[in-house]
Design a protein that fits this description.
Helices cover 46% and strands 12% of the residues. With 443 residues, the chain is an alpha/beta fold. The strands form two sheets. Strands 3-2-1-4-7-8-9-10 form an eight-stranded mixed β-sheet, with helices on both faces. Strands 5-6 form a two-stranded antiparallel sheet. Helix 2 packs parallel to helix 3, helix 8 packs parallel to helix 10 and helix 11 runs parallel beside helix 17. The protein is globular. The termini are far apart. It comes from Aspergillus pseudoustus. Belongs to the short-chain dehydrogenases/reductases (SDR) family. ERG27 subfamily. Keywords: Lipid biosynthesis, Lipid metabolism, NADP, Oxidoreductase, Steroid biosynthesis. This is 3-ketosteroid reductase.
Length: 443
């Protein structure tokens, strides 16, 4: 190993999107806290690159993170081992995504983990009669898997290009913010993820999903969710499908090109590892964020309902975003052997990847736990859950054990989704190349 490579391995670099508030901000705080707690006796340093949509938000977030670090680290020498770096990006602006990718590739030697957290709900309001009735008569279920959120159908983003506008395909707003913008960003920073070093090698792509993901809203003929009244739930279901099938042999014809390094983004002077990154899926449980804008009184009513749901036995009501950050932070920082050991019982029974959720006990003790996914079950295992904790955990009403036929259909859905996503990515890369070439020519 070269001296430069050895120095890189002394540094852990994590990218977190959507960190100006809520869950993303808490993930950044928790990354710093857990890094310093778990690595007290070594000299490694942590760099957390976080994105916001403006310089002002980035600076405000940076100051808040520095204040948190000073308060939690106590020892200035320990705090000096953590660096926060702000970046700007608008995930609904693919040229902005491309610009961020270039800055990252030119500035950093590697990325050990990329936590894909940013996103929007896209809701226009709540069906208040249904919400009130549901919470009063079926509280735990309705504040875990709500059915009363309202969203407009067919929201699309503005044109991405100024010159090649006549060739642009439509892009759904929620789809682009929650999935496609991240998808493009992740592919573009593959050179950095391929260079992830010890102890995290290979690099990790950590998608942040939701308990509200539901395959009933995901239509293979409408993966952007332009025709569904639940585009958020559809986007999170797509996230689940892409993540859980990313490392299956059946999706390899498309994932191979996604995980490959684009020669145009590679720095010829830097060696790139041949091992593609691992993909993981997480969710924050149910915590108090501003993704659904509410009047302060209603916000505290929501919190009270969440507390009551936890008292009634819900394992998923983490309440605070700091506890909600448990699962994605654990995935981003844990050693590869620890993650492999956590998934081993599922793999041993014919399964694979797990949807890791942040769970909390009655007294707020948090830990990552497997979440059941429609058609995939717990960790892709056909039949009953193989881990006792998973069997005892409260299930969504109507949930049933995954069958071999359902798992086969899930994998088929994964192949189709990966194919469409790669075709769309390649189409957009060509359009953006043409837009940039024409813009440079005009200048």
């Amino acid at each position: 190993m070269t001296a430069s490579g050895a120095r890189d391995n002394d540094q852990v670099i994590v990218l977190v999107t959507g960190a100006n508030s809520g869950l993303g901000y808490s993930i950044c705080c928790r990354l710093a806290d857990e890094f310093l707690t778990s690595r007290q006796n070594d000299n490694r340093s942590l760099t957390v690159i976080f994105t916001t949509r403006s310089t002002k938000k980035g600076n405000d977030t940076l100051q808040g993170l520095k204040d948190h670090l000073r308060a939690s680290a106590h020892d200035p020498a320990a705090a000096a081992r953590v660096t926060f770096v702000p970046e700007n990006v608008d995930l609904c602006d693919l040229l902005s995504v491309r610009a961020l990718s270039r800055r990252l590739n030119q500035t950093f030697p590697k990325l050990d983990s990329i936590v894909l957290n940013a996103g929007i709900g896209g809701w226009s309001g709540l069906n208040w009669p249904e919400a009130i009735f549901g919470v009063l008569t079926d509280l735990v279920h309705q504040v875990t898997w709500p059915t009363f959120k309202l969203a407009p159908v067919g929201m699309i983003i503005d044109n991405q290009t100024k010159i090649v506008t006549d060739k642009e395909p439509r892009l759904g707003t929620v789809f682009c913010a929650n999935v496609f913008g991240h998808y493009m960003l992740t592919h573009n920073v593959m050179p950095l993820l391929h260079r992830s070093g010890s102890p995290n090698r290979p690099g990790r792509v950590v998608w942040v999903s939701s308990l509200e993901a539901s395959s009933k809203f995901l239509n293979i003929d409408d993966i952007q969710g332009l025709r569904t009244p639940a585009p958020y739930e559809a986007s999170k279901a797509l996230t689940d499908v892409l993540s859980l099938t990313a490392q299956l042999p059946s999706t390899a014809p498309w994932t191979k090109s996604f995980y490959s390094v684009d020669p145009k983004t590679e720095n010829d002077s830097t060696e790139t590892a041949s091992t593609p990154p691992n993909t993981y899926l997480s969710h924050p449980g149910i915590c108090s964020t501003g993704i659904v804008p509410l009047h302060p009184i209603l916000f505290y009513c929501m919190l009270a309902a969440f507390w009551l749901a936890r008292l009634l036995g819900s394992p998923w009501h983490t309440l605070s975003t700091y506890l909600g950050a448990c699962a994605p932070t654990w995935i981003a920082l844990s050693s590869q052997s620890e993650l492999d050991a956590a998934e081993a019982p599922y793999v041993a029974h014919g399964g694979g990847k797990v949807k890791w959720g942040s769970s909390a006990t009655l007294f707020g003790v948090d830990k990552p736990a497997s979440s059941e996914v429609e058609g995939w079950g717990h960790g892709g295992v056909v039949g009953p859950a193989v881990i006792e904790e998973d069997r005892l955990r409260r299930r969504k009403r109507g949930a049933r054990d995954a069958t071999a036929e359902e798992k086969e259909l899930f994998e088929y859905l994964g192949r189709q989704c990966w194919r469409q996503m790669e075709e769309l990515r390649q189409q957009w890369d060509e359009l953006l190349d043409e837009e940039e070439a024409l813009s440079w020519k005009r200048e």
